[in-house]
Amino acid sequence: MPDIHLPKQYVLFDHDGGVDDFLSLLLLLHMPHIELLGISVTPADCYLETALLTTHKLLALAQRTDIEVSGGNYHGINAFPSDWRAKPKILNALPDMINVDTPGAAHYDDSVNFIRRKLATAPGPVTVLLTGPCSNLVHALEQDPTLAAKVGEVVWMGGAVDVIGNVKTYNHNGTAEWNVFWDPISAHKLFRAGLPVTIVPLDATNHVPVSFDFLQQLARQSDYFFSNLAGQFWATTIDTIPAYEYTYFMWDVLTTSYLAIPEAFDFEMVELEATPMGASAGNTHRAPGSGQWVKMAVNVRKEDFYAYLFRQLRQPL
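Structure (tokenized):
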């Protein structure tokens, strides 16, 4: 059912500029129970300036330019491939994006300062939604540990626990997921911070690839502006379906939908750790007796998820 019946929720959104990050933003902006306190952009799966511009364009299209956007100045440990990071430049040139005016987009606060400020002034417990690496949040809490009390839940698209990872580099054994691998040291710290953490790892997101069947079904409702725009965005991922042994999944979109349809997920409470360095850096693994208890999504009822997604993308401009 629509998320209109859910209690009000304060959300800080930290994304890293991939196609699915921006589509997650579209979902958030159409969740009636969400009060979006602000957006942070981590320069992981993007180049910061173009990802900030995409973010501001989407806010302008949704008539939500009141939402503050910040940018991260930390650049991680293991860089995403450069061709992945260039994607926002393509998105900004799409027909429905290229002429969107974004005054003030070049001016932004540092993400760590921004997160500290937003947590300190939040009117209630904050859900921190992370669809990129967790670095900005970890650094903010290191600077002011008292702010941990303001975090109601950390929801993170991160990890590969009982499935193979999606990192394929010459110096890695393939056990890690990219959001964790980009800054495995911060991930290691997050899983030792004692925060209430919910993760949606590859174990769950592997169930929802961006398939041609899905894109065809979405195109059938392209008379709706946001359905059409989402179809354009996902179409830019077509070179990874199924070429180059890499498939694009709804990593972040699935994670974001948890805020509206938690009943569509199956969870397991597990003790987890993240390996901070070495050939398995970023590996999120079970650590009975020594890890932190984490709420981990292990499955999703795809029919419920897709129904919700199609419904949300039919929202008016």
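The longest strand covers residues 265-274. The mean pLDDT is 94.
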